[in-house]
Amino acid sequence: MIWILALLLSCSLTEIVLGWTYHHSDKKIMNWAAARQWCQTTYTDMVVIQNQFENDFLVSMLPNKTKSPYYWIGITKNHMNEPWTWIGNNSTWIGEQSWAANEPNNNHSTEFCVEIYVNQGPNRGKWNDEKCANRKTAVCYKAQCNATICGRGRCQETINNITCLCDPGYEGDRCQTAVECPALPQPDNGYLSCSGGNLTFNSTCQFKCYPGFLMTGSPAVTCGVTGIWSGPRPFCANYKQALFAVAGCGALSALCCLCFCWMKRRKRKKLAQVRQPEDVTNSCSEAQG
Rounded to an integer, what distance in angstroms lies between the CA atom of residue 47 and that of residue 179? Predict the structure, then answer.
């Protein structure tokens, strides 16, 4: 029975979502620094708001109040000329309608902390700058992300959602699966072996030829981050074929060289024929002169 009552009490103070959860200190009121310490000790930290949707969601799950004290939120600054900054991520997000009317007014130049209104008036969900020494209720969040939830990736958390941003070469909703490359066929006149016996990201397969055959191309390929093997596949040719291939390449090179030389010689000959009539004409002109 006590267990059930504890569960019901917990549910009354917490909005359970798939991402982080919001919590508040109920009747316990504290200055801003003490409120943040309470959040860090009991949960993860004082609440951080990243956009208007989160702001509205937070207000919707907090108990309504008709007057101060309202709730501290995790945006602050140290000096009057500094920008307002969210704790933890150094964000300076402030929506167009975040502040209540005529706020922030920074009375006495010492209002460097912020509360959020949860009344039923036109200022519901709006912010007000306050002296950090004033006592208010703490509102906190508890992160669901941890170091192991995304196996080979980074956990990104929002309301109702946890997303794993996978490292290159990994996939799956929790980055738990290495990217696979397609199976490689055994080369003709040879064989291959893969590191670890798998075909996943960063694994390498070595090609080898049977005795009497010569490998042409790189002897190894590696599985890339996109599931594609690196480089062209090598092939195994017998020594006679390899010699013919080398001889063929040599013959082709020689033929190309002969063609080039012949064309160059023909061009020089043509230029010489063009110059000859010019020389004859010049000689005749000199003789007449």
Answer: 37
Contact 76, 34 (CB under 8 A): no
For the question of whether the overall pTM of this predicted structure is more than 0.70, the answer is no
> What is the residue type of 168?
P
Please, are residues 175 and 153 in contact by the beta-carbon 8 Å criterion? yes
* Size of the chain, expressed as the number of residues it contains: 289
Residue 186 tokens, joined: 């055994």
pLDDT in tens, the chain (289 residues): 333 333 333 333 333 334 788 999 987 899 999 999 999 999 999 999 989 999 999 999 999 998 889 999 999 999 888 999 999 888 999 998 999 999 998 876 789 999 999 998 899 999 999 999 999 999 999 988 888 889 999 988 877 788 899 999 999 999 999 999 999 999 999 999 998 777 899 999 999 999 989 998 899 999 999 999 998 889 898 876 656 555 555 556 656 666 666 677 666 666 666 555 555 445 444 445 4
CA distance 228 to 181: 6
